[in-house]
């Protein structure tokens, strides 16, 4: 291959590379505006000025100071199958972005062909052209071609490739935010199920203590009946009350077992043999800061994902508009061609070609215009979805804050009711002992006292569940600053809690989702 050819070849592709500094057609991305209230409607002592100082990013569940919950959360992040699927989707999106990035570079192929051919005298042609002249009879010949370099390169004059990579990069960021959403949902669901189980333990504890009390009342009633003070009706009512309480206990036990099974699935193990030690709910919910509504836009991964999809679709508009403009290809080929294998690699057997090609759309029947219209409509759809996700995010926080406020009022009132029902039961038992009231009055007082105590436990559990929902609504301490905004030279950072999963042999395996996305060429 001569120096002249190499020089020409280098000049052609250097000139083509300079075309990359051209502009990109289509609209440049501007984040959509969204309504942002100055403050939340709900107010309370849980709101503070600096929420990020109070909720650790990722490990927000540690705010409950429950070692068993922490261990379960860590196990779920390693073994939950839904989270593995979400991590795989991140790797898929990043791989697609890398495929899009490959379009910035020329494709170089190697090819080689060889054949031994014989012509037929019965093909209707009396004279055939052969490698050595003409012939009117059958002949055979050998042909061999080796092309070690077959190069093709599309010059990105209009920015179509850059827009496509911009769209793929934003989609990869959205996929990463989707992973964070899945991770946050998993943590919140596991914490909710865990404290629901602890609430069930509390209710079971109340029910067991009540059953013991009912047994003592039955013994007392039997004694009074033997002494001629009580009636057979009192004894039967005492038996019925005890049996009903035991039936309620069996129902609570069944609910607890189902919660235990659900937690087993969340942490990625079979329910068989999975046991969580009985431990009634004792402590109440922690105070969670809500911050400002404006913080929510960068603390909710689902909001960030919706915004990234708007950016990705905006770039697709540019890709569609670029179809109006010519496609310029630079091609080059060099190799050897010979009818004699022994002479194939001789200098005289060399072949080469290079040059540009252009393809310009003349008539497409309105296909390009329709595609642009479709891409713009999809963009408007994504903008509406993004704004809706922001509104829903504000609603989620407001719902949780108002629920916490009303639950606090309900807890205070129910505690007063429980104390009153307990005092009433003590008075009724005393009056029954002296024969002033019937045993039916005792049963009524017992039922009211039991219901009030069960409700106080349930309210405490509801408060913790609502607190978890508030943390989830606030984004769990996650911030979209972990996703660098799209720009030439930027890359996507890994997730706050890297999507680490267990490999086939149980070893930890970090998927491609934790790897940075390659950068794209700088736009001058």
Description:
With 524 residues, this protein is α+β, with helices and mostly antiparallel strands. It has a single domain, classed as Outer membrane efflux proteins (OEP), CATH 1.20.1600.10. It has 9 helices and 8 strands. It has helices at residues 3-18, 67-79, 81-101, 160-226, 232-266, 293-299, 301-321, 367-433, 439-473, and strands at 107-118, 128-130, 133-135, 140-155, 327-338, 350-359, 501-502, 508-509. The chain has a 4-stranded antiparallel beta sheet, covered by helices on one side. The protein has a two-stranded antiparallel sheet with strand order 2-3. Helix 3 runs antiparallel to helix 4. The protein is elongated, with a radius of gyration of 37 Å. The two termini are 35 Å apart. The model is unreliable at 1-21, 44-56 and 484-524 (pLDDT under 50).
- Give the termini distance in whole angstroms: 35 Å
Structural class by SSE content: alpha+beta
**What is the CATH topology descriptor?**
Outer membrane efflux proteins (OEP)
Mean pLDDT: 78
Query: Into how many domains do the coordinates divide?
Result: 1
Strand content: 5-15%
Specify the overall morphology: elongated
User: For the report, how would you describe the main beta sheet?
Assistant: 4 strands, antiparallel
- Spatial ordering of strands, largest sheet: 1-4-5-6
Poorly predicted ranges (pLDDT <50, ≥5 residues)? 1-21, 44-56, 484-524
Q: Features of this protein?
A:
alpha+beta; two-stranded antiparallel sheet; 9 helices; Outer membrane efflux proteins (OEP); 524 residues
Summarize the helices and strands and which ones pair or pack.
Elements: H1 3-18, H2 67-79, H3 81-101, E1 107-118, E2 128-130, E3 133-135, E4 140-155, H4 160-226, H5 232-266, H6 293-299, H7 301-321, E5 327-338, E6 350-359, H8 367-433, H9 439-473, E7 501-502, E8 508-509
Antiparallel strand pairs: 1-4, 2-3, 4-5, 5-6, 7-8
Helix pairs in contact: 2-4, 3-4, 4-5, 4-7, 4-9, 7-8, 8-9
